[in-house]
Write the structure tokens for this entry.
Amino acid sequence: MSKLQDQDGFVGIEQLPTLDANTLVVDAFKRINQLNSRGFIFENRQRESYVDAVTLAEAMASSSDVKAGLEDAHATLGWLFETPETASAVTAFNTTTLSPDEDPDRIAEAARQGITLVESDADRLGVLFPDLKLFELGTRRIYFVCEDGDRNLSPDQGRCGYCGKPITGTIVA
Ligand SMILES: [Zn+2]
């Protein structure tokens, strides 16, 4: 029996997109919403961190600098995380090596240390969250909402894909 995968706080790698600095912002949110994920693993210069997509979307929708930058259709995650407003969405991982049938006490101890990237030998297995409520969206999605209330699955270029008006906020629904 694989104990690690049964832990409440564990999310397998198949539910968490791994995105890098060259990923387009537009594509990032499409991937997140396809998986009904709440976040992603961000790889930048050989370092990984966890990004909470809801916090990120809220920060983006409330920042005029970010919205101005998104007018460039080639805006990347690398660019986005150079913007101070979005930094609060990024959390450094604890990294730990656990085997799939690890001692539950050791798993619990790792979970207490914070959001933990779990690796076994050379394989990345997933992420261990102290509280799974931090992660789960289930069937809900992150929408970028325009002045008129239209719901977009990605921020596109800071404007609504239906009516062209500015994105003014986010909702999770
Ligand atoms: Zn609209």
The chain has one domain: 4-138. Residues 4-138 form a domain with the CBS-domain fold (CATH 3.10.580.10). Residues 146, 148, 150, 160, 162-163, 165 surround zinc ion (CB under 6 Å). The CA atoms of residues 38 and 137 lie 6 Å apart.
